[in-house]
Amino acid sequence: KIPLVRWHWRYAYVNSTHALLPPRLNRVYATDGGMLTSGALLHTKFLPGIVDRSREEKSRGEHFADGAQFASYYDRLTADPVLHDKASTRYTGWRQLEALGLISRGGWV
Fold first, then answer.
1. Which residues does 18 contact at the CB level (< 8 Å), separation at least 6?
2. Boundaries of every domain in the chain
3. pLDDT in tens, the chain (109 residues)
4. Which of 8, 41, 47, 73 is surrounded by the most beta carbons within 10 Å?
């Protein structure tokens, strides 16, 4: 997902907020070996209440342009899957994500 973009009339959102045009706006890593500022979005499927929310979303059928294609996705979430294993770790904050290399300050202090 693309959470925050400085708007410009030449930019276009594609597939909701999952991608942008022009393509360079989707670059999340530095191609020259440096670091780009990056962040992380914490998805609601990992929060309590996902089973009920998934039932509601499936009944609405409004996921992107073709809600029907997500029926099996919602069916699996309403089955109350276990989304953690022995390698899982409890989220403690953004510094943890940075230490794990999942986000970067991009060289900012």
1. 1, 2
2. 51-90
3. 556 667 778 887 776 667 777 887 777 677 777 777 888 877 777 778 888 988 888 888 776 666 677 888 889 989 988 888 999 888 899 999 999 988 888 877 5
4. 73
